[in-house]
Queue: 2 jobs
Job 1
Amino acid sequence: MILALAGGVGGAKLAAGLESALDRPQDLLTVVNTGDDFEHLGLSICPDLDTVMYTLSGRANPETGWGHAGESWNFLEALGALGGEDWFRLGDRDLATHVERTRRLRAGETLSRVTADLAARLGVPSRIAPMSDDPVRTVVETPDGDLPFQEYFVRRRCEPAVRGLRFEGAPAARMSAAFEAALADPGLDGVVVCPSNPYLSIDPILAVPGVRAALAGCAAPVVAVSPIVGGRAIKGPAAKIMEELGVEVSAAAVAARYRGLLDGFVLDETDRPLAAAIGSEGAAGARAPLRVTVEQTIMRTGEDRTRLAAQVLGFARLLHDR
Amino acid sequence: MILALAGGVGGAKLAAGLESALDRPQDLLTVVNTGDDFEHLGLSICPDLDTVMYTLSGRANPETGWGHAGESWNFLEALGALGGEDWFRLGDRDLATHVERTRRLRAGETLSRVTADLAARLGVPSRIAPMSDDPVRTVVETPDGDLPFQEYFVRRRCEPAVRGLRFEGAPAARMSAAFEAALADPGLDGVVVCPSNPYLSIDPILAVPGVRAALAGCAAPVVAVSPIVGGRAIKGPAAKIMEELGVEVSAAAVAARYRGLLDGFVLDETDRPLAAAIGSEGAAGARAPLRVTVEQTIMRTGEDRTRLAAQVLGFARLLHDR
């Protein structure tokens, strides 16, 4: 069994690759960041869960990475005409997910249950779970004050400088049942930290009580794929945030951020010169040494995803058998 | 000032005609049945208010009479794929109305306020108000048990026989402020009971405490247009319901239902032979005699609406000046 930790677009791509690369797709559990979730227009919106669900069901918009392929925007246009808040792009098809999820959450179902059921109905062959059924909300600390995540990310287009991040609700949140069970499963063959934003996507998952300890202590190898390639983020504001926080924008800084949690780190070919230093500096505590491997990590096509996933799985198997 | 009482499609058409026929469209207030309103998928849906609003803003679907012109159905299709309840036809554009209204009602605004604002944003030149800001819910009593209105009307396609109707919440409901003010306004020139279903659309309005007394006592003439023509309903289940309730399906039965409330009754040319009997039998109490006029009442085109509205206004003026 493979456990993947993911945020939105980049994480979803590698999860899709893992699904293809595994003999049995149901052996994959993708645990998804819910720090981006928010309530908008009375709806419970879970952007990362939806990106993963749409990607794994073959419905994702290939141009944006998020949202539905072949989406229409008539709801949003009509909402604008009524004076409603139309800054968050809600497509007509996508809206069905939010309306149905909101209805079921209000009826008392857990987010885990709703997520598993919606994914099954869309034909996702692997399993998807939120990191927690309890609300965790990422707050971005900026010179303009604290901003709820989507206010920062969508409405303000990541323009305000990030001074800090916090994950409200995290201290009281519990891991989702599937997440907790996977981490404790003796059949767990590996944990893959997907190439998602370390600050915005992976940190909220790590902020759920017990996750760091379970990762640090788990018998299966833990492997991360760097989302920073050649000193730049493949997508999204990771590089900008690292700069604003005074962190070097490099794959090495990502490895350092995960220090003590990883057995293996996957670096892009571009960053081959960093491999040795990361191997020696990134290792820490019980999980040392840190093994580093170099691959072509940029996923442009479905084949790229499957190939990278197969390489990551091979790397994990190698570490497992050590 | 003219006050129109309306349900859905037929009422909306005459309201549109009145708007065109009046020198100043803002002199028209259309008070709309809210007994059809319901909560569905977590949304507050007001079908008759929306039909009136879309019709008066030129957005109504000319083929169905309800819903948006040029509507798309991607939300509903996606909802079906997720296993959601898709029996109530919610179009993508229409959905914006429900989402925005629901959000504003939850934030504490009244239905009157939200309705007035949405109508203004859509460019409706006259005024629209719900009959009440308090919830009134039509329940259809059938051999299969009590059915919430939309369950009967849409999901069961009006198939169950109607044994009775009741309007839950009506005894505790108050007239909306605009409705109450119009009925008490010394400038009121006429009340038009639109050719809507007497049982499903007008009765709920009459069930709001104080409405019958205010109509019976108001100084302005009260005129109804028959929705039954030649023993058949122009649209919807009115004839079927009258049969099931053991009432003769005729314009005369409609006049009898409004007995004591009307000064004038507008009959279709087809029913000219009924005019004399309606005039003598329909009159009752303080408002006797009942004057009857005959017009071409079927509204196929915009010109039909305006012409009929002008005739109704002329008739009311005649009664006013008596």
Job 2
Amino acid sequence: MLHVVIMAGGSGTRFWPASRDDLPKQLLALVGERTLLQATVDRLAGLAPVERVLIAANARLVDAIREQLPDLPADAILAEPCKRDTAPCIGLAALKLVRNDPDAIMAVMPSDHVISPDAVFRESIRAAAELVELTPDRIVTFGIKPSYPAEIFGYIERGELLAEIPARAADAPLRLYVARQFREKPKLNVARQYLAAGNFYWNAGIFVWRAQTILDSLARHEPQMHAHLQKIAQADAASYPATLEREFAAIRGVSIDYAVMERAKNVVVLEAPFGWDDVGSWQAMGRLRPVDAEGNAVTGKHLGFNTRGCVIRSTDDHLVVTLGLADTIVVHTPDATLVANKHDEESIRQVVKLLAERGWTEYL
Amino acid sequence: MLHVVIMAGGSGTRFWPASRDDLPKQLLALVGERTLLQATVDRLAGLAPVERVLIAANARLVDAIREQLPDLPADAILAEPCKRDTAPCIGLAALKLVRNDPDAIMAVMPSDHVISPDAVFRESIRAAAELVELTPDRIVTFGIKPSYPAEIFGYIERGELLAEIPARAADAPLRLYVARQFREKPKLNVARQYLAAGNFYWNAGIFVWRAQTILDSLARHEPQMHAHLQKIAQADAASYPATLEREFAAIRGVSIDYAVMERAKNVVVLEAPFGWDDVGSWQAMGRLRPVDAEGNAVTGKHLGFNTRGCVIRSTDDHLVVTLGLADTIVVHTPDATLVANKHDEESIRQVVKLLAERGWTEYL
């Protein structure tokens, strides 16, 4: 049976001041009316019922997630007591699934990306799940065709074509390849080589496998991690909170890419037939939201004079007026405002760092 | 006896969103901790006691003024029922003064300029008052030595030197000249000629005269206005409010420059020995407030990265962060934020106009 695990642990400092420690990117309505997490859950309609959706997130976010997704069953949120990267989180989810359904197939996906059309996404997840059903030890990853030499994504090098799977929602048959190699975030010149080579994909962090397969892989490649996870899984209801707290904290945090994908032999890559955007920064609003005639992406109340190429975000009652402004990001929140040159946007991380250093935690 | 009339009627749309219909420029603390009006009153300490200070302002502002100046006697505010420019307002004040003190000497000054040092200002007003005492029909104006060919001020052309008055607070003797001619705001090329000629001053809107002198001038040059003002002055307490409302509204609004200064023959100009700034726009903050090493004039909570030549205004609890910003004005208020290129600042007037057109009066 197909289960979906949504990874909602990201902290997303790039969207400060809209994003905060307790309100990370995935909980913001950055693109449409729904938050990125809500849109991710909406996208599953018809693919897996809510009883088979698990959301993994830091314990601090549980209340906010429950509020955004009131239809989710109470035990649908897997609370991580601390940040330990993706591998322990995926392992914990897999253990939870196999307990009730030893043959559980597990689709893992981030909570903070924009994907469309939803039907094409569902079709490709379904195809991957069927593939795993047929060849149970397969690990299916999704590769995004790169549109520029990005330094901010990991890459997957594809090998030979394994299959073309007929599609209905997608325009063309789905293409499945051997995944020859996983590559970490490259330098620009390397990224350019990947782009020119034509057989590299961005790693979207979307995976489909049997839960038991990934547990076996973790047991093999990360035995200590697996042992800690086992202790958590075996705890009874009374001792679960303390065991989780202790054992999860004892795990060395590592990504699923590093722990498994770079080492496993049975990995295939499905070329994503859907549109994908990681919503990496405020600049993405210019791509993902409707823009006005001057190229401004605006949310909330705004009046612009001689304003172009800007990203403006306010609320419905706070008026932002811009005069003679180009390529600038303006984000108003009740207690903090950001005004940033688009080309300096990377520095937002430094802002958040400096706020922490100064002890201005009320803005974090 | 010297009385001071402070003209506090300006609406100052250039400081939106900090300035509003009910909170014009003179009621804002733009430069120091005190508002411009408070600083204007503070400056009079030792020159005239509060019982001899009159503040002329639109009726709508009376409460706010009273709040800012709690030590002022209750009848110190002369409320204008509508906007009629400076001449009717000055006439009304003069009538009020001569009623109790027929020999009243009247110093008239704006409420929204920055002047320093205060002692030099007081010394020059005192000198002008003494001059008027000696030669009772004199009209004394103050001329500011122009520092650039401004198109936004009226000019006074000086004629022959009449006197050098010994000074203590000022560095040099005060110089008094015949005022040869008043000139309205010139075009740039004309302003350049004035600057080059060397005998033109900016008209600072500061005047000293006997109250009776200005009333006589108004009676002669603006007989209809004078008649309306007389009716107001002659009203008894019971009929005063209705009379003021009716008669003041019936006056054709005109400036004192146009009504009197350009026509009168007995005008002299005192070269201002004090520093003067009209605080004409947000840009003035860069001149009038301390700036940081990157030339930013900052009020309120701010963090700047790669930020220079900016004017930033926030409150003590709302954080404004700027990244990669130059020559930009950022003004945060609880319900509106302005982000403007310094060189587009003139457009603020258009913003205010457009807000009115759209009926967004909550921001005006």
